[in-house]
UniProtKB/TrEMBL annotation:
GO MF terms, alphabetically ordered: aspartic-type endopeptidase activity
Predominant cellular place of this UniProt entry's protein: membrane
Cellular location(s): Cell outer membrane
Family: Belongs to the peptidase A26 family.
Alphabetical list of Pfam families matching this protein: Omptin
Repressor among keywords: no
Membrane-topology descriptor: Multi-pass membrane protein
Entry GO CC: cell outer membrane
EC numbers, comma separated: 3.4.23.49
Protein name (record): Omptin family outer membrane protease OmpT
Enzyme class (EC, first level): hydrolase
Length: 88
């Protein structure tokens, strides 16, 4: 999620430029199930070969970033099109 507040330095009908401050949190995770593997043991290189049964958890990963930020934001409008950008 991303929660922010913006203050506009320029606020014209066709373009805007402003400052922003906020807090962002992003999460990503996955779990791999089943499949084959090749591992290296202490005695050898790529000498352990096998497979996990379908549905059995083989490996999982999870990361979470939490961060406050400040930045610039702006947009430009031409007829029915608008181009916008944010730099955090």
């Amino acid at each position: 999620f991303d929660l922010n507040i913006k203050g506009w330095l320029l606020n014209e009908p066709n373009y805007r430029l402003g400052l922003m401050a906020g807090y962002q949190e992003s999460r990503y995770s996955f779990t791999a199930r089943g499949g084959s593997y090749i591992y290296s043991s202490e005695e050898g290189f790529r000498d352990d070969i096998g497979s996990f049964p379908n549905g059995e958890r083989a490996i999982g990963y999870k990361q979470r970033f939490k961060m406050p930020y400040i930045g610039l934001t702006g947009s430009y409008r031409y007829e029915d099109f608008e181009l916008g950008g944010t730099f955090k």
